[in-house]
Write a structure and sequence with these properties.
The complex is a heterodimer of chains A (153) and B (432).
Chain A lengths: L1 H19 L27 E4 L5 E4 L2 H10 L1 H5 L3 E5 L7 E3 L4 E4 L11 E4 L2 H11 L2 E3 L1 H9 L6
Antiparallel strand pairs in A: 1-2, 1-3, 3-4, 5-6, 5-7
Chain B lengths: L1 H20 L6 E4 L8 H7 L5 E5 L2 E3 L3 E3 L4 E5 L3 E3 L7 E3 L5 E3 L2 E3 L10 E6 L5 E3 L2 E3 L3 E6 L5 E3 L2 E3 L15 E4 L5 E3 L2 E3 L5 E4 L5 E3 L2 E3 L4 E6 L5 E3 L2 E3 L3 E9 L2 E3 L2 E3 L9 E12 L2 E3 L3 E6 L2 E6 L2 E3 L3 E5 L7 E3 L2 E3 L3 E4 L8 E3 L2 E2 L22 H8 L10 H12 L21 H10 L1
Classes of the chains: A alpha+beta (153), B mainly beta (432).
Keywords (chain A): Signal
Organism (chain A): Rufibacter quisquiliarum
Protein name (chain A): Copper chaperone NosL
Chain lengths: 153, 432
């Protein structure tokens, strides 16, 4: 009996610990609204996500909405556990935005009109740039570009 | 004098013949199983400018048809062009092309190319009429194309009910296209029914957009457009108008847009627009407004919605007059003190005031925001206390002694009778 009680206690404890773990969640496409622009998050090539220090996820319909959100709420970005964007070439796959690469090209229309896509590494970015043209930006550069609404055509 | 008359004659001839030159009957090329041409692609390639290609019945396994000269491509006896998931079916790269009466189907989802059944690339005055487009990624895709007409098409994608399928394109997608006319289309099972980005001075009329994953109609950065007499049913949200100015929205029906993230009409960063004579029926939120200013909302009907209007405090100078509010769980809700918006002469079925002088206008003002609706804006989960005794008590106390609800958000002259808008009823009848 005592053993069972202990077992139950541990199971409850493990359950509680698990539910508190700060982790990223898959973006529920079609069922959630962007935390910045309120549009339904629907295109799985562009979704982005921010998980704060308490583990609460915020979903965005595009990388530019995530950046606009971070430009407005800089503190949120500093204490965020995860800042994630979708790799344009591998839909639904989330990669760390702060180490990601961003291609801005007029041949790549994105949900908020900034013509911006994210990819995981520089090689993919360069390859995509050869195909579509445009310019490659780092995380810091892209934050600045969104802030100034730069959209060279 | 003679030279002058010669000149005049030349001028008159040019003026008379110029419009005719576009209708000059070229040759007709027939495509069918037993005709000279058995493939649409061959016929299109062989045709000269101004020719007419008539496809007579049959099923054609073809993709990648490129139209590079002004042609008329007509289908009779319902011919089917099956793309077999091998890429785009028709690409139009010439002005004055007409594509009519074809059935196009089967295009695979491609993430880098945005394949469509019919794509128009940087050309003008193209007409796409009475086609049926089934099971495609994008349906009709226009880029940098002006003065185009899209009429009477049926674009039907996947069944999105109950699935979070995101591998869907838009049924009609316009990007940087001005002066487009989109009328009488039926659109379902796509991401957006109609998507307009950087589109100006266009008309969207008499369309039915239903069961789309995201929006029935979606404006992004598209100023000066008009949409009237459309029906938006069971979409993620009916219509979204964003980052836009000068839109006229009249005689539309928004219904059955249910869901936690659903709206009849979503307005975000929009200004100087008119919303007249629309019907909002059974939506989670009839209109959701954020950062929207100088909107004129008149003579609309809000019937049996969860929230008729959700007016966020970032909205200013909006006027709501002569609207009917019936059977809504909440008439208006707000998250702050929206003092800069005006409500006047609306009909509210929850109004319990009186009219002693019989001028058909209530003698006491009506406050459309209930305390409970404000509580829900702050604490969404409190919605589970809906229709409980405590909530009724709270709302009634607040009604007698208003202290929390915005004191400026008030209809000083609510009307006693439902506003009749027969005009409107006639119009919805014809649309159905």
């Amino acid at each position: 009996m005592k053993f069972f009680l202990k077992l139950i206690f541990f199971m409850v404890l493990i359950g509680l610990l698990q539910s508190c773990a700060v982790e990223s969640k898959p973006i529920p496409y079609g069922a959630t609204n962007c935390a910045h622009c309120n549009m339904t998050v629907a295109d799985n090539r562009f979704g982005a996500e921010l998980v704060n220090d308490k583990g609460k996820p915020f979903f965005f319909d595009s990388a530019e909405c995530l950046m606009a959100y971070l430009n407005e709420n800089a503190a949120e970005g500093e204490k965020a556990a995860f800042v994630l964007v979708t790799d344009f070439t591998k839909p639904t796959e989330l990669v760390d935005a702060r180490n990601g690469f961003f291609l801005q090209s007029k041949n790549l229309p994105s949900p908020m009109g900034m013509n911006l896509v994210a990819v995981a590494n520089e090689a993919t970015a360069t390859q995509l740039q050869q195909e579509k043209g445009g310019r490659i930006l780092s995380w810091q550069q892209v934050l600045q570009a969104v802030k100034n609404n730069e959209n060279p055509q | 004098m003679k030279t002058l008359s010669n000149h005049l004659l030349l001028l008159v001839c040019t003026l008379v013949l110029l419009p005719l030159s576009f209708q000059v009957k070229g040759g007709t090329l027939n495509v069918c199983n037993t005709c000279t041409y058995t493939s649409v692609k061959q016929a299109v390639k062989a045709a000269k400018s101004g020719d007419k290609v008539v496809v007579n019945g049959g099923v054609y396994q073809e993709a990648g048809i490129e139209i590079t000269k002004p042609l008329t491509l007509v289908g009779v006896n319902r011919p089917v062009l099956d793309g077999n998931f091998k890429g785009q079916i028709i690409t139009i790269m010439a002005d004055h092309v007409v594509v009519k009466g074809l059935t196009l189907k089967n295009i695979a989802t491609s993430y880098t190319r945005d394949d469509a059944a019919i794509r128009v690339v940087e050309r003008h005055q193209v007409k796409i009429l009475n086609n049926t487009i089934l099971n495609t990624y994008f349906g009709i895709y226009l880029q940098n194309a002006e003065f185009c007409e899209i009429r009477g098409n049926v674009v039907s994608g996947k069944d999105v009910a109950g699935q979070n399928e995101s591998a869907l394109g838009n049924a009609i997608h316009l990007w940087h296209c001005n002066n487009a006319v989109i009328t009488g289309n039926t659109l379902r099972g796509h991401r957006d029914g109609i998507y307009l980005e950087f589109v100006k001075d266009s008309h969207v009329k008499d369309n039915l957009s239903q069961n789309n994953l995201r929006y029935g109609l979606h404006f992004m950065f598209s100023d000066g457009n008009v949409y009237t007499h459309n029906t938006f049913r069971k979409n993620g949200a009916g219509v979204a108008v964003m980052y836009t100015r000068n839109i006229r929205m009249e005689y539309n029906t928004f219904e059955n847009n249910w869901g936690a993230a659903s709206y009849g009409l979503l307005l975000k960063d929009i200004s100087n627009s008119q919303i007249y004579h629309n019907t909002f029926r059974q939506n989670t939120s009839g209109i959701y407004m954020e950062s929207s200013s100088r909107l004129d909302v008149q003579r609309n009907t809000f019937d049996r919605n969860g929230w008729a209007i959700r007016l966020l405090s970032s909205c200013t100078e909006d006027v709501f007059s002569q609207n009917n509010f019936t059977g809504n769980s909440f008439d208006v809700s707000t998250n702050g003190n929206s003092t800069l918006n005006r409500f006047e002469n609306n009909y509210w079925d929850k109004y319990t005031g009186y009219d002693l002088n019989k001028d058909k206008v209530g003698d006491v003002p009506y406050r459309p925001v209930s305390l409970y609706s404000m509580l829900i804006e702050k604490v969404p989960s409190s919605v589970m206390f809906m229709r409980s005794f405590m909530v009724d008590l709270m709302d009634n106390v607040e009604k007698v002694l208003p202290s929390f609800i915005p004191d400026q958000l008030i209809d000083e002259h609510p009307v006693m009778r439902r506003i009749k808008d027969d005009n409107h009823r006639e119009f919805t009848k014809t649309v159905r």
